[in-house]
Design a protein that fits this description.
27% helix, alpha+beta, Thiol Ester Dehydrase, Chain A, five-stranded antiparallel beta sheet, homodimer, 156 residues
């Protein structure tokens, strides 16, 4: 089911959700993005954001964890090691942070495969383009990007 | 010097460097990208990477820390709060991981402003496009992306 050939097009897959809390916003930002509107709820009130917001790199990074968990879960369901476990990503496109993410916001991450392409330099692989979104339960869009991934083709 | 109007075009700025070690590769990946080729040097030998590599999200995230440190340093040099401290980023484009980053690799991060544009919905801001690279000292390119940032314009 998970070889390149089997990836369904235009089907929305829910990866999972992640809740941004005051605590994990501070923990991430202290280490990687130490700006007052992320690390200091009080100082954040006096910035352009008028309050604490999550680092955009935090909202982006949450995706890969959910993607890995999703793949692990599918492996268990399918009863076999997924062939695309060791696939690598050639990159991301059009990363957009649409709205600030406030503490106690839960984002639901999903992706939809929008294109499947040959990868001539490594013919045993195929490229998938995935439109990735993170939204609150009411459908408001906070983050979107396009993920490119190389998946193994079914052996002949 | 750092209002939108003053940002120099096509001038390469060195942000700083970051060394990926076995320890910080494991620490980041355990938390955010728990795949064996990142978290387990021994298991990594039996994956497509033939050894441990840094998470791409780790190499990407290292940039924002260096950008913040650079802005802090410039603030000290200029003796004033930089007007673009609270600038927000509308996004990233064309994030590409060109080569696996092995333990004990030091990447030098730089950026070059390649475009400056009006931002009609918020006329007090201007958009800069920055071509961002991370290379080893011999010039080999490991990571590249385009960062979009909104900077304050000089008050009239």
């Amino acid at each position: 089911m998970f070889w390149f050939e089997d990836v369904p097009m235009n089907e929305r897959v829910i990866l999972g959700e992640y809740t941004f809390t005051q605590e994990n916003i501070i923990a991430f930002a202290t280490k990687f993005d130490p700006q007052p509107f992320h690390t200091d709820p009080e100082a954040a009130k006096h910035t352009a954001f008028k309050g604490q917001v999550a680092s955009g790199w935090h909202t982006l990074t949450a995706w890969i964890k959910l993607m890995i968990e999703y793949r692990e879960k599918m492996t268990h369901i399918l009863g076999e090691d997924m062939p695309n476990r060791s696939a690598v990503s050639p990159g991301l496109r059009q990363v957009r942070w649409h709205l600030p993410v406030r503490p106690n916001t839960t984002l639901i991450y999903d992706f939809t495969t929008t294109a499947k392409k040959d990868w001539p330099s490594r013919p045993q692989l195929g490229l998938v383009e995935r439109a990735c979104d993170a939204r609150t339960a009411d459908g408001t869009l906070y983050l979107s990007f396009i993920n490119l991934a190389l998946l193994k083709r079914r052996p002949e």
